[in-house]
Write a structure and sequence with these properties.
The protein is α/β, with parallel strands linked by helices. It is built from 9 helices and 11 strands. The strands form 3 sheets. The protein has a 5-stranded parallel sheet, with helices on both faces. Bound molecules: calcium ion.
Amino acid sequence: MNARARDDAEETRVLVVEDDRGIAESLVRGLRQAGYGAERVGTGRAALSAPTPDVVLLDLGLPDLDGVEVCRRLRARSDAAIIAVTARGEEADRVLALDEGADDYLVKPFGLAELLARIRAVLRRRRPAGPEILRHGPLALDLRTRQVSVNGHGVALTPKEFGILECLVADPGRVVSRQQILERAWDAHWYGPTKVLDVHLAALRRKLGVPGLIETVYGQGFRLGTVQEPRERP
Ligand code: CA
């Protein structure tokens, strides 16, 4: 994570509402490693009586209260950003949660990079701040203006190409699966062939013009590779 995003993260408190202790603990650990303040509660009642955080990650399947009802009551009492979490197939609950004021949703299972990207996105929508720039080697992504540069030279990308790159730069070095990229850069409900991704990736690699920047990890997905620092161009 770049310095600017980390500074933002340090002021941000995330409440993880999740009754599955294993999932909750790994989420809290990952969020803290990314620099967020993170706490976990395991019930809807505890979520409603917790100090108001900046972001609530709300599992809709809770043991005591209906998750959608918890979402509605959280929205009524605070302006925290709410990201609803559901299992696959619970589309009706996702729609209800969005109607009751959730800002976004995630479908289990999801990776930490996707969660961090969603948190940054909801925070960006809530408090439009200065530019947030992600950097990796010669690459810089301005998440606010959605402009990309390589060695300081602007590169014009399509929204899909930008989305793919954003997934990868969000957590450089981590392998991001084809499905995660499709869900993030296309639509959370992409059911089409993943072959379409290859076409956009080929165009993206060509436009960036940095060999080795986007690595294919066979059978797993893609990640950003270690590349040379910016060098002077003649
Ligand atoms: Ca649950």
